Amino acid sequence: MSNLIVESYLNSTVNTILENIAKKYSINTAKEYLTEDMPVKEIKFRYTTYTECVRMLYKNAGYLKEI
Fold this sequence. Notes:
The protein has 67 residues and is of the alpha+beta class.
């Protein structure tokens, strides 16, 4: 069973959020890091899979990339 992520972030960046998820949930997030980090004003993950979290992050930041 995959980990479900329950977190909220305010005034952060995509890469900072990915780093935090990696530490808390022991997930390798390296391939999803952005070369040029992008700001995230607010995002909430409520029992969300990691893949869905990445999609939500990219959409929130206005970055489109297939994962």
